[in-house]
Structures are given as structure tokens and as C-alpha cells.
Amino acid sequence: MGDDLFASIDALLERPRLVEDLPMPAERERLRKLGEYTQEELAAALKTRRETIVRWEAGTTQPRPPKREVYIRFLATLALRHGTVEPTEWLHRAQATGLVLSPPSSPADTAGAAEPAQPAATAEPAEARVSVSPAPAPAPVVPAAFGGQQDQAVELDRSPSGELVTEPPAPCVRCGRPTPYRSGGRPVHMGGRCTAVPASAPPAADTTVHRPAPQIPAPPAGAPHRSAPVAAPRPTGTSRPAAPSQPSRARKTPAKTATAAGPAGWEAAAAARFPSGPLAVVDTAADGRGLAAYLADGGPAPTAPGGRTLAEVVEWALETKLGQGRLHRHGKDGDALVVLTDAALAELGLPPMGRDEKTEFVPRLGRLPDSHKQVKALTKAGWLLTQRGLGPWARVYRTPEDGKRVCVQLCVPAWGALASGGWQIPDGLDAPALARLLGTYATRVLTPRGSTAVCGLELVTALRPPTRAVRTEAGWASGPVEGSRPKEAFDPAPPEVPDVHPLAEDREADGELVTEAWDWHRPFGENEQAAPYAVGLDVNMAFLAAAGRLTLPLSKPVHELSPAFDKKIPGSWLVDLSHVETDPLLPSPFTPDGSRPTGPAWYSTVKVAYAVELGAEVRPAEGWLRHESGPYLDPWHKRLRQAYLDTMAALGVPLDLAGHDPFAFLDAMAGLRQGDAAELAVLTAIKQTAKGTVGKFRERPRGHGYRPGQRWAALERPTWDPLMRALVIDTATVDFHRKLRKMAVETGLHAFAVLSDCAVFASPGPDAPDVLARPDGTLTTALRLGVSPGHVKFEGSRPMPEVLELLADGVNPGRHIKSGGRVSHDE
Question: Where are the domains positioned within the chain?
Fold first, then answer.
């Protein structure tokens, strides 16, 4: 059993990385166009379909032998004629393995280049002799068992079904390293990937191999000749490095250039890979015949989906090159999204939503049965569905080829995809308008792929991918990305988990880290009760503002007894904060209900640090600490902040409006309801994305069949960490408490009620300036009016007699402050 496992893993490690001998997809298309060859011409020469060439150039599939070698020769020949704009390892490899002739380097060769290069322009016999330049690296010694000849690619033994035969690893007859593969029963590595022997080894006896010649069509008659570049003669007597170092230099130079240029390079490359944008809304054509599609800008797609099956729509999405470029240089490109309108749903033979399980989509089940004809058609076409099946948000994918993911996301609004989960799509939108709405969200945030909370969590990992490719002596390996959480999930500390978590079973009754937003109010003072109004002020995107540059855990918790407190270490601390003195007219920052702590309890680093800031001496009894940390959510904060500001500007509330004219800002916020309905929907989605992401860090089990103490699916996510949620909420609470303290000092007003990020004050007038005015008539900056996350806006006002009635009933006035007066409608 053990030998079989070793053999299997050796076989996996020895599998050739086929993508390394091909240029990037965008370069493939560029070279073909420079050669003035059409996809149809290339497909005919390679005896394949045009759609196959489309997929090769899009990178959705990769060519396989024997067409792969011919395709490489085609591209490499064009690269030698016209030059290549990316690292040229693939070109060096193609030349070294004889897939392309080297360019002429002598005057005679140059003179003979007046006619088109024969290998790429004219047909050759089926078996052509291709002269292979000796490889620059020292050649390995080839035993006599192989005829004393170096062959870069040997024919490996295969089973009758075509699979490679593997046996217990044995020393390769060419290099001596262990290999599980056999050729003629002898151990040998595949693909010529043998370790070179010392330079004193004799050269190979023969460097000529027989290969089928690619039948590449000649350029059109009369087309201008494109000669191969002429290599400059090397001066004699120079000490230029040997040839093996040249690919390394060619690889390093572009890497430094890309680093200096920042993300612009790979962002531009991503845009070139997905010229049609991130998504399309598929509807029926205007004449009622067939389907039509609209892209993210609302314009029609260049081609319409053909056929009447979902499988054909998925294929169309790939051929149209829908998708979104990666948001991080080590991240992954976003999958294409196809939204099906009600009319398209009917055209494709998919059922409407209802209760009949045989003829309708039943929300209770959440998916179509696998026996449905469209699900069968997907399976027959080679597509797979995730465990969620074909439902409101479906993921259709194909088994990856050569490590390249092929996936399309589906969204079905008729099945409730956009009716909940943070989405508030206006009624009556046609397909172009819906495409523009979702395209705006995709451009500013991320291509939708579920609820707004799901999108927010996907945005976190898109901006902070856990791993990256690392080159080692043995080849490429997976390595961590600095500042990201590990790819493997780990459990948090027992005090941090919710009561249904398995780690909570042996926890003491008061041993939980309780972190929630404020829900607090207090009795009126005499002066406050005499005020005519109560005015509410709300913090914009409070949780988002708190996440910027916030130090968050990146490693497992470590339990320590009597640790010395360090505000730079995120974690949970068992400490007594009941002696910390705070303003009795304001809520305590250490409890969700604003009451004063009564004894030792678990607190996050943020709250303990705030107690120290207030002058308290803290002596933690225990701690669950993370010694690896960083601003994990900072990129997420920056992207969502900019998305929020861009959307508010589109609605007529620019970032600097409140600084220039606070009253114009208040008027603009009061009239926000009259803004563009689609932009308002995007604004709501962005706000819900921020809130939902924080909630996902501590997502509880869902479903009626769950039993307390069992693990649930969310626990296996690397981002499931209740401490991250606690640190974000506690930071928002502490920041708000600082502002309320400063507000009391500058204006003499204390909030008498707080609900999450909304504070309610007794006011002489019904507007925000009545609360924010200092004695000298200027507006305080403790709670700064403005649209920026962390600044405040007018939430609403009510006459004081109505507020007194709410307080008499034990109701927090902050819950109903928007019911009267001039109200901001951006929530």
C-alpha cells in the first residue's frame, strides 16, 4: 500500500506542466493576427474546429499532443519573425526541443530569407526532417540501451485504455533519478525532464529527429514578406555568459519591469483576456426568435447565444470571452456570469418558480432535479454542477485541463436570486438596464456570485489570495502570500466561538467573548427632557471604516496564562475591566448593552487597549493570542470604500461636498431617494456587502437538520474566524465612543440613546446643525458631517413627546428615529 502511494505521488510530481511551453493566451492571439492568419485557416491546417482555436486563444482549454507541438511551432515561428512581448521561456524551449528553426544569423542566411520561411508557410511531407539545434544545457549521458542517442521525448508505456503505466520508482536509465514511468519496460522520465550530468559528459551522438511537419497555410498571394530577425554577430574573444543563462535573464527582466509598473501590467492583460466584460444578461431577441445578450454596459453582445440548451449558452459565454480579471497579481480571474431573464428561462425550457415539483422550480428544494432535461444536457456536454445543483445561483464547471479552470456562473432572478440576500433590484428593469446595474456592481466591487455577503467574502480572498506559485529547484510549488491567511482553515479559541460550536461544549457559562453592536439608552436629564426635538446622527459604513489598517489574526490561537498585555497582538484576553471609569452619561464601551462590567470577562485586544488608553491598569489572567497578524482587510476596505464613494458621487453627493457646504450636503442626502434607481440599488448592495462580510466571519449553521455540537460547512473556510468579526465591531464601537466623548466636550451634548452606529441627542432644533453647533456657532468635528466612511449623516428627527413615549415603553429611540422629520434615504 505504501509503495503504491509513493509511486502515485511520484507520478503526479513528474507530470509535465504543459502550459510552460506555450505563451499566454493573449499572446497566442496577437501572434496569429500579426501573421495575418485567420482562426479558420489555422483550424483547417490543424484539422480541428475554429471553436477549438477560440478556446486555445482564450485559455479556456489547452492543445494536446500531437497538435500541441505543431501549434507551438506555428507560434514560435511567428514570434521569431515579429518578436514577442512577454517572457520568452516558451520560445527558448521550443527552439531547444526542435519545434522551430532558429532565425538566420549569417549574411547568406539573411539573403536567403527573401522568400517566406518554408516550415511555416508551405506544406511539407508528412515526415519532415527537422534539424534540432543542440540544447544549451549540458546533455545527459544516454545509455546504450537507448541506442546512445538523446531523445527529448520518449514514448512511454501505456495501458490498453491509454493511461500511463506506473510501477514502483526505479532509477532512470538516462539520469539516475527515481521515476515511476517505463518505456519498453525500462525506467525513464517523461518529456526529457532529466537532470543534466556534469559538463564533461559526451554530447549526444545525433541531434536530428523525425517529426510530423505542421501544415500551416502560406500567406495570401501578394502579401508583404515578413522576414525573420537577423541575429547580430557576436564579437570574438568576449566573455559573454553561456547560453543556459539566457532564458534566466529573459525571465528576470520582464519580472522587474512588471514590478516597477505595479498592477497596471497584469490588469491590462486581464482586460485583454476578457474583452466582453464580466457578465451578460441573456434575454429573448426582439423578434422573438432565439436569444439575445446584453453586456455589462447595457449594449448588445457582438454575437447572440445560439441553440436552445443551457449547455450552448455556457459554451457561448466562454467563446464570447466573458470574465473579470484578477484583483491581485497572485489571484485568480473571475468567472463569467450569465443572468437569465424570465423570457430566456422559458426559451430554454426551464420552469418558472412554483410549488409543483414536477413542472416548476420549488424554492424549498433549492435546485432542479438531476433528471431535468436541461441538467441532463449539461452533463451530456461534459459540464458538472456543484453540490448546490442548478438553482438560483449555480456554478457550472468542467474538469480542469492542465490546471486551467473552466467555469461559468449562472443567475436566475425568476428563482429568487436577486430578491433577497442584500439585493434590492428595482421592479420592471429590462435586460439592458439589469445588465448595467449588475455590471456597475461588478466593476466597482466584484462580479456577483450569490448574496452580497457571499460577494464580500469572495472579495476578501480575491484581494488576499492565500497562495502563490513559487519557483524552486525542483520546479513550481505553492507558497504563501504575505499578509494573507493560510489556505487551510483552523479553529479559533474556545471563548470566541458561538454556543453551538463543538469547542463551546466544555466552556463555562460566562466564558464567551461577547461582541455585538450597541443597543443602549438611558433616562433623560432635566435639560434634555425640555428640549423640543430628538435628532439622530448615523456613522457612514462604520464597520467598513473600522476595518482599514486594522491588525487582524493570521495564525492559530496560542493559549497563555497571565500574559503581559500587548496592544499589537490580536487575541482574546480574560481581564477585569469593572474598575475602568467612563462617562456615566454615555454607554460603556465594554458591553453591548452599554452597562458597566461587573467582573472578569473575555475581551478582544481592541477593548483592552482602549481601557489602557482611558488610564486603567490591566492584568489579564489568560489569553488566546495570535503572534502572526497584519492588516488583512485593508485591501477589502479600500475597494469597498472607493465603490461607496463612486456610487454616492454618481447620486450627486461627492466626497468634498460637506466640507464646502454642510447644508448642501444635508439637502443632497435628503433628496437621495429621487436619485437613479439603479445607482440606489448598487449603493444598497455595497452597504450590504460590507455588513454581510463581517457577519460571514462568524456564520452560524443554517438548515433545520443541524444539531448543536456538530460542525457545519462554514467552519472549513479559512476566513471563518469570530475574532476578526469581534475586532471589527469592537473597533467601530471604540471609535464611536471616542467621538461621543469629544462631542460632549465640544458641545456639551451627550447621546441618550445609541443603536449600533446611530446616536440620538436632545436638540433645540430638528436638524443636524442644531446638534453639531459649538458655542461659537461653528460645527464640531467630533462627529464630522460628510459622505466618507466614518463620518456622519443626518438620520432623522422626532418631536420629544414621541420619544418620551418610546422610552416609557422601553424602546430604544434609535430604532424609530427615521419615522419623522427630514430623513436620509441611503439605508
Answer: 1-195+207-218, 273-474, 485-827
